[in-house]
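Let us practice reading a record.
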Amino acid sequence: QEKGYRFRTTSDTEVLLYAYVEWGVACLEKLRGMFAFAVYDRQAQRFFLARDPMGKKPLYYTFQPGLFAFASELKALWQHPAIPRRLAAPALQAYLVLDYVPTPLSISEGIYKLEGGHYLVVDQGQPATPQPYWSPPLPQKDVPPLPEVLHRLDTLLHEAVQLRLVADVPVGVFLSGGIDSSLVAWYAQQHSESPILTFSIGFEEASYDERDYAWRVAQRLGTAHHQEVLTPQKALALVEEVFPQLDEPFADASILPTYFLSQFARQRVIVALGGDGGDELQAGYPTFIAERYAALVAWWPKPLLHLALTWAQRLLPPSDADIALDFKIRQFLRGFTGPAYQLHTRWLSSFLPEELSHLLQPEWAGHSEAILETVLGPYRDRLPPSADDFAQTAFLYYKTYLQDDILVKVDRASMYNALEVRAPLLDRQVVEFLASLPLAYRRRGSQTKWLLKKLMEGRLPQDILYRPKKGFGIPLPRWLREELRKPIEAELLRPDPWFRPAVVRQLWQAHQARQANYRKLLWNLYTFKRFARQWGFG
């Protein structure tokens, strides 16, 4: 307004438009929030597309002969008669390993995702290459004084949460009882004169249920807390509600409880704050603990690793518990079958690249053993030679698991319920500060998220701060054998052109007989086959 622009609305869309008119591409440096947008410059016959730094909001695009098209969903692009709907083999291979299709790929050949922190300028419809405007900083080698770090982080979090509480509609907070969501709830309550609304869900199975932790945090903070239980029967109904809306295969089963939580919260609020990003920014995943033990076995010959994995599977009976010991040991040993920079990705994987040639039909298995190099290599190559193993790992987490799993899950699950979820921990200034800190401020011994825990001491109960991390998983191992068995089995054993039927059947039968816990592999296959049938692939 000071520059003479007259606003006709109070919409942020109009602000974006005038920002582009005033500053051009440089307007992206001034934006703080989540966005995916396109501006058409009629005079220059130019499109300008951009996506927020972390990739919170989706943006797909394609160049076809005589056509440039873009949308926030694949299914919108498929409506155009000139855009073919063909399965991309590299995307399928990557999905089977990662449980999601990684940027810049999409499951549909010739359609791409614009990477977070990038923009695209398209002149007169001619093909163009995305350009970066932002990237998370590398961890510093120097260790700044703790009081200074805590003060700066506290200031940034107050500001990030306060900004995201601004709304002309009711606002709430997702509260699991873990440190990230509890931290967000604490800051939100500091900026509210009345008890904030908090929401959590749980399960009947004790090893998956966090309702007691969430309730204790809510009592400590004085929030108006609401809880619900996701039963197997409700989960079965959710599968039929969620999957028809997904236009890319997505095998993170926690999209079901996230959808259920969003649906539950939407009964009372239109905006919710979540704790997403804390694990990536503060080395919070169990893989960062596993890293401490990796050096002990990294030098083992591969035959010895294979033997250890075989004996571990024989001696440890499969458990249905959340992140059980047998599952952790199996994933840990499987990770060492590739190069070091792929270690964390392999630990999180469903199928390994070298297993795909056994699973896939020959026409879909070409070059599958190199799929992680195809996906991760370009990101690794952007980093300077000075980037150590931790810097590489952190950067890969931002660009793969966070962008294409966590943020996709939250965006789809919430937006399908007309709920807007905001992530204060992924505020640009918070990310720039936390990403610049050395490993010493993220992990101390076997303690992850060390800095966040120090920050919240005295604000949250000690046993909440220092309890073992739990994911947002569902009791899938048992559900696959019981409540969900019939519909999952029918889909998995249906003939298809991609997978060897004997391999799929063997995985299914071994899980049913409790010979192994193959819930990740089976859910991955089911999700893809359900997607392919839904959208007419194959």
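A brief commentary: Residues 204 and 231 are 7 Å apart (CA to CA).
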